[in-house]
Every structure is written in C-alpha cells, then in structure tokens.
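Review this today:
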Amino acid sequence: MSCNTCSSDINTLPKGCKSNGSCTTGGCEKLSVFDWLANMTLPAGQKPVNVVEVRFKNGRKHFYRNVDNLQIAIGDIVAVEGNPGHDIGTVSLTGELIKIQLKKKGIDINSEEIKKIYRKATQKDIDIWKAAREKEYDTQYRGREIISRLGLKMKLSDVEYQGDGNKATFYYTADERVDFRQLIRDLASAFKIRVEMKQVGLRQEAARLGGVGSCGRELCCSTWLTDLRKVNTSAARYQQLSLNPQKLAGQCGKLKCCLNYELDTYLDALTGFPKQDTVLKTEKGDGVFVKMDIFKELLWYTYKENRTKWYKLTVDQVKEIIETNKNGEKVPSLEDYESDLIEEAKVDFENVVGQDSLTRFDVPKRKKKRRSKNRNRKNTNQNSNQKSNHNQKKKKRKPANKGTNNKKNA
C-alpha cells in the first residue's frame, strides 16, 4: 500500500522507500485521488480515455494526452512535453475518473492546451531527472543570496527543475509588485539555465511545502484540500472564538482553513437566536448580552449598571422578554426568569463493559498516601525498637566476655 516509514530530508525528498520522489505506492503523493473506477470494465464499443494525470514535485499535477496509445499504468514514470524540452513525472491517475477531474478543473477534454506524452522514461531520462533534482537545494540557497544582494522584497520558497535539467521554476512570495528583470539575468548567468519566476500566495506556499498543524495532523491544504477559500474573522465570531491571531492563524500566517468547516452548522443554529445588541428592559434595569452557548441554546445577560452577576436564560425566555418589551411593558427582573429555568439532569458515563474511568488519575488518592506514611512510620519505629533491643543484648554480653578473658589471663 503506502510507505510506513516515509520521512523527508532537507530537500523535501521522501526517504522511507528510498525512491526520492518516484514512489509508485502512492504513499509519498500529496492530494492523491483514489481510483474507485479501476475495477470496472467499459461498456461495449466505448474507447478508453487517452488523457492521464501526471504528478510532479510537491503535488503539482497536469493532464497529458496519450497520443501514441502507450500502455501506461499508475506509477509509471513518463517523459512529457515541456516548455521548452521535456519534463519527467509520475502517472497518478488514469481511466474514466479523468473526466471528473477535468470537469473539476474546468478543462475541456478536447482542448488543445493539453500537452502530449512523449514516451515512457528510460534509465537515462531518470538519471538526468534525479541529477537535476539534487541541484535544487543549492540553487535555492544561492538564489536567496542573489535576492538579498539585489535588495528585493521577496521570499524564494522553492525551486523546481525540469526533467531535462535545462529549465528551473523559482516559486516566490511577495507583498508588493517586484521588478525581477535583473534577478532573472543574474540567475540565468549563475546557473546556465532557462529561468521562470512564478509568484504563489501564502496558502499555496504552505500547501507546496507541507507540514504539521496545531491539531497534530498534516496540513489539509497539502493532503486533500484543493479549494483554498477565503477565511474571514466573522467565521471566528460566529463560532464564539476568541480573536487571538496566534491561535487562529495557521502555518501560512493567515486564518486557518478549518474555521470554514463547521461555519454552516453554526449559522443554521444561530437562526433562532435573538440579536446580541438587543437590550432587555426590566423594572430593575436594562439587561445587556454577555455570551451564549449555541448548541445548549443558553444566553447570559447582566444589568447595564451592575455587572457583578450574570443571569442564565434560555432562548425562549429571551424571546418572551423581547415580545413583552415590544408591547411597551417591562418584565420584573432577570432573577425571576433565571429561577424558572429548569435544568435537565446530566446523564453520567455508565460503565457497562467493565472499563476503567477516564478520569481515574485526575483526583489524587490521599488516603493511600496517609496509610503509606503511617506504615513507613510503623516500620521505622519497629526497626528502631529492634536495633535498640539488639544493642541492649550486646551490652549485656560484653561484661561476660570481659570476665572470661580475665580468667584466661590469670
């Protein structure tokens, strides 16, 4: 299946299967697609799709046309049309599922933009490809030195060589527009290659490089997420999260994509809640909103002039107070509604399988400690008593020994 010991070195090359990026098991692949149509046969008279998906470095994928009808399977290394020259990549998807992927990317299957496959890669092609990939880290390091020397406000995040080694793509991020005409001349003269500069966003940079998020799992953008949508701070507000940029920001420096995952559920739950800026008018004073528990349908209000205590109310109670205020009347106080609140008994965990409690280590067991201390004291007392008795016996024996010695001397 996949590599069990896949890890990456400083060049972002997988070391688990020792294939250095040409892993045929799919374990080193990012944004992989499961071919659930692989075992299905085509209807009679239908020709197979002559377009395949080819994967390159860091999950970059493109579609190529199999003009010569080569026998290509997933995991084969092929030489494809480049600009200029040829590039080397690994086939990641074939068959009828290609049509769905083309539709997702908005590409027509008969489009002329789809380039063609030259051949299956020979051993010479693979050797040149691996030699070119080994130069990527040094090229990136020297490229950053050239950028710092020119004083350009840009960050060089990654370098990718073409399969034939005649061209390199430099991926960079920048906040403003950068004039890199002199940079291209310096890079071309330093490395004797054709240079292509490609600007990527911060989210795309994190997706290319990969990493582990604060949840302990690999980044979603580098493993399965293909639609990088915009995330606003309103998503955190709707979910009642504290607007702490250190906790809400991901490795790209922007808001985490996972803030959008449960946003629709929170928006549906908030449809029945009153607005937070609504003031509850009572005879004791005006009540203002403090916080809410969305899924328990509870709200906390406090008096505007006296904020020492918060009063817990349900959504129905708040709506009742608002309707009373619309009729020009005031309710007596918030305390009366809080006292009417009936809380359901919480069902605790029932141990039906004979398992131990999950919180068994939370509360310290003081009784056992005291017993152990008392036992230690008793043991020390017993040991001291035994030592004292033993010493007393020795003292009693000593004079008898002295007498016998005197008699022998006499």
